[in-house]
Amino acid sequence: MVETTKNQNLKAVEEVASSVWLATVSVTDQMKLVATTYRETLLTSKPEEQERILYSLLQQVPVLEEVSVTNREGRELTRVSRRRVITPADLVNMRGQPVWNTAITGQTAFGTPAPGVDGRPLLSLAVPVPGLKDGGPVGVLWGEVSLRGVMDHVTTLISLQRATFYVVDRQGKLIGHPDFSSVLLREDLSNYPGVQQILANNTSKQAIPLQYNLTNGGEMLGAGKVVEGLGWVTLVEVPMEEALLRLQQHTRQLLLFLLIVVTLVSVCGYKAAEAFTAPITRLSKAAAEVGRGRLDITVPERSTTEIGHLERSFNTMVRQLAEKARIEEAIRRAEKMAAVGQLAANVAHEINNPLATLAAYAEDLADRGHEEGWDYLVKSGTLEQYLGVVRVQVERCKTITRRLLDFARPPLGETGPADVLTAVKETVALVSYAFHKKGVALNWEAPSIKPFPRVKIDTSELQQVLFNLLQNALDATPAGGRVTIDLFQEAGMIIIRIADTGKGMPAEYLSRATEPFFTTKPPGQGTGLGLTICHHIVTKAGGNLTISSETGHGTTVLVTLPLASTGENTAAGEGKEEKR
Which residues pair with 140 in a beta bridge? Predict the structure, then answer.
């Protein structure tokens, strides 16, 4: 049992060290994302825009307490805080501070933990803000991280059972412990036996087992590791008497278990086997349902053994998958609603035309009714002719609104099959006014295949993909340019090709085009989620989305989707040719 405890301690301290490092690095990664996304814009934009960007960063990273941006000379331009109001008088010059001096050379820098105004330990860190050209950093994005937030996050990720963990900085001060009051007291553990043994072996990058005696005579089993990149010491320890007590408890449990097993096998072996396999069977069936897409299923948590732990873990996993699916759907829905907003002006313009015709015919009909008499208009067929025009114009209005409602409706919750021709026609009709207004030609021809096959994707989601891709092509193409849509079948797949004659993208942007929040548009003009959502929808349907582009030569996007099954693949229309 002593060896088992040692192995558990080694595993636990590895988890603590890696979790501390990853939790810290994830903060700098988020800061780097903001710095590389906005670059010089972060320094040159108005203070209100700088505050918006920095507050957004605080919202995304809960452990960040304060964040500020400085220029190349070290002067703070804007600082925001989670807990206090920042005034211009609070802004300082960072030049000369070690963390800032390192970051301005182009490197990520970590400071030494120090107590804040309320005693909580804070970690200063900074990342460089790169310029648009290769001229070195143009500024620094600086932040203060609450180590309590980091340690709370670490505690939720690891399972220490009855062990205790310590995190100590380079000066030997306690910065992480389950009892946060000890951290607030800034206890000095530089002379603690476990910490001293770790520091004596700090050349090792692996966790090391420890066994030492305390001043009160107690013997401890522990494990330690230095957090690479930070130089902090992590220590996990268990009293020796606790390990021996576990051995006694396991021995008693084993004897009792053996007695129960012998009794059960001799009296009711068959029922015992059935009771043992029943939860496994339930888990197997539930896992199969989850594999088919059901995320509302749970299994009864009836056991306190390993099977019970597996049941609880299974239910937790399903809840996390359902929450992830809900968040992803909310993001896709929000992006789609933004697209609906862009279409509102187009729809309003298109409806104005039939409404103007209705108004003119109604006014003319009223005048003629008074002048020529309603009986004459009825007998001559003029009234029926006018009402026929009214019906046609009303039908036009209904068609326009139906297109918008079809585009805005929530997905059906199931996969296809989708009528590709109808989806393309409806989407082209929705965006045609925006193309006409900008002076960009939108060309497409229905393929000669009749009937055209359907694909295994929800129609609403396919329309969202087409709209996002056409909107991106329109944004990238100047007036006088052209966007072309082609449909063709190849190797059991349907391929939708959207090509524009716009400005194109360099290779370094192309490789990141589907990353979340990556956009080449100016701040406020793009979320960076459009291509990410398109890629997610297409790959979820079993397809593929590829982008090819070259600066000055436009961009081509290929959406490859699998055919629907034979039973689902009914005719998708006559495939009439249409050009816009």
Answer: 70, 128
Peptide bond preceding 115: is omega within 30 degrees of 0, i.e. cis? no
Q: Is 187 exposed, middle or buried (0-12, 13-18, 19+ CB in 10 A)?
A: middle
- Is pTM beyond 0.85? Reply is no
Closest CA to 27 of 163, 132, 124: 124
For the CA atoms of 250, 253, 254, 259, the dihedral, rounded to the nearest 10 degrees, stands at 170
DSSP 113: -
What's the rounded Cα separation, in Å, for the pair 441 and 580?
A: 7
**DSSP of 39-61:** TTHHHHS-HHHHHHHHHHHHHH-
Tokens representing 35 are: 């710095």
- Three-state DSSP state, 442: strand
Biggest alpha carbon–alpha carbon distance for the chain:
117
Positive or negative torsion for Cα 521, 524, 528, 531? negative
**Mean of the per-residue pLDDT values of the chain:** 79
Report how far residue 19's alpha carbon sits from residue 499's, in angstroms, rounded to the nearest whole number: 45
Is residue 338 predicted with pLDDT exceeding 70? no
Question: pLDDT of 430-443, one tens digit each?
Answer: 788 788 888 999 99
pLDDT digits 0-9 by tens, 361-374:
677 678 778 878 88
Give the torsion sign (CA, 236, 240, 241, 244): positive
Question: Of 435, 517, 523, nearest to 472 (Cα)?
Answer: 435
Q: What is the pLDDT of residue 480?
A: 92
